[in-house]
Amino acid sequence: MHSRLARDRYFNDFFRYISNSGQFSKTRQFIQHGDTSVYSHCVAVAYVSLWFSYRLHLSVSKQSLLMGAFLHDYFLYDWHDKSEGRHFHGFTHPGCALRNASRDFHLTHREKDIIRKHMFPLTPIPPMYR
Prior knowledge:
With 130 residues, the chain is mainly α. The protein has helices spanning 2-6, 9-19, 38-55, 62-71, 89-104, 109-116, and strands at residues 31-33, 36-37. It contains six helices and two strands. α2 (9-19) runs parallel beside α4 (62-71), α3 runs antiparallel to α4 (62-71) and α4 (62-71) packs parallel to α6 (109-116).
């Protein structure tokens, strides 16, 4: 299955589009988990999300799935730096990511919902979409 996804033209084309658009390349400079950059984390989330959709034979919008996965942590700051008032990052970064993504990309309602609510239940309103 991984080889099928590695050859998935839609994923590769979308990856090139996102990587060369907006400020996505800036996510390389911020650490997400341990020593993993936000960039690597978002690429992995997009890859695994698409893999699950194939594996479970889910009918999904590949565009919305990939846009939401690539941009869900598009907050563009170092959340480890508490001097910047990032004490509640887990609760607040989805809104920041959505603001940045909306500024740099044309998003559908579904894509906005994915980004805004990806931290449920830390964000109180559950996602509207699978």
